[in-house]
Amino acid sequence: MTHHIVVLGAGYAGAYTAGSLARRLDPADTKITVVNAEPDFVERMRLHQLAAGQDLKKRPLADMFAGTGIRLRLARVEAVDVEHKSVTLDDGELAYDTLLYALGSTVADHSVPGVAEHAFHVTGRAAALRLRDHLDGLGEGRHVLVVGEGLTGIETSTEIAESRPGLKVALAARGELGAWLSSGARRHLRRAFDRLGITVHEHTSIERVEPARAIATDGTVLVSEATVWSGGFAVHPIAARSGLEVADTGQIVVDDTMRSVSHPDIYAAGDSAYAIGENGRPLPMSCASAGFTSMQATDAIVGRLTGREVPSTALKYYGNHISLGRHDAIFQMVDGDTRAKSWYLRGRTTARLKNAILKGAAWGMGHPTFGMPTRKHRLTASTGRSAEAATA
């Protein structure tokens, strides 16, 4: 009798946790299945590059998990039945003993009319390729409008402006561009926008998107043959529909070990988890948060299944690493209240640092057996092992 661990989603959080569990748990006691809709690991942190016209290395999940014992099931998740401990997929059902929910997030349209019909986004590979194809069809001098002054909006607008200098790129910001950065980093950001020729419309909220323009709340009309929506993230509604306790955001409410507060056999990691950091605030949806929550979820699952102590991972947010095209970037450190510190990095060296971090993360995902221990942990009888296996 084996304990079946099902991981929903193979993004940064899901793929990392699955690989870590495979490294640490004995396959005689456990079976790990990863469910993902796409056959490849998607470097979401680079999708703005893909949309701008750059090619990304393909990373097949089958190759990543080869030799780990992890079973890959290519399917789309439709529902989770928390009472019967099963997942409904578009190709059938899948039962679990322990579930890790890591389905990530998608773009939040905030119910703005026209976004779903006419806007583009870069929160998924298919969406980024759709934007790329559209940009390929635009002639010189056409207008691209990026809506949203957060990390995604800044990175997408600068990447497109650098890669496609023939287009007129603009960004609509609800407030001041880079207001959350330190004064020095904010000045560097504005210089980068000026260098790339990006027009900034500050204090501009978009209330409607049309095929070739966007309308602001004050009636201003912004011409745009390609409107790119980057107004935040939203999680999939599957968790809320399942009966799990969720926050207003739809994220699964977890304790400090990433365990669902309503269903103890379910864990969440990445954007799907409503986790409270050491500062008492919810962790932001980010790659950094995916790393912290994944490590904690892994430790908790291993600890509880093997009867070991569950260690605690520090849930801190250290800063923002923002690419400004391929040759410039900003790394802004933040304090315990996520307010910008005066200290920051900028320029080519910072761009190389971010590229190295992303390459390292992708390498780690692609080599989940690296550092595989010679002795793996056995499960206790109370967690689903047979008595014979417990004494083996």
TrEMBL record:
<feature type="domain" description="FAD/NAD(P)-binding">
    <location>
        <begin position="4"/>
        <end position="284"/>
    </location>
</feature>
<keyword id="KW-0285">Flavoprotein</keyword>
<protein>
    <submittedName>
        <fullName>Oxidoreductase</fullName>
    </submittedName>
</protein>
<dbReference type="InterPro" id="IPR036188">
    <property type="entry name" value="FAD/NAD-bd_sf"/>
</dbReference>
<dbReference type="GO" id="GO:0003955">
    <property type="term" value="F:NAD(P)H dehydrogenase (quinone) activity"/>
</dbReference>
<dbReference type="Pfam" id="PF07992">
    <property type="entry name" value="Pyr_redox_2"/>
</dbReference>
<keyword id="KW-0274">FAD</keyword>
<keyword id="KW-0560">Oxidoreductase</keyword>
<dbReference type="InterPro" id="IPR051169">
    <property type="entry name" value="NADH-Q_oxidoreductase"/>
</dbReference>
<dbReference type="InterPro" id="IPR023753">
    <property type="entry name" value="FAD/NAD-binding_dom"/>
</dbReference>
<comment type="similarity">
    <text>Belongs to the NADH dehydrogenase family.</text>
</comment>
<dbReference type="GO" id="GO:0019646">
    <property type="term" value="P:aerobic electron transport chain"/>
</dbReference>
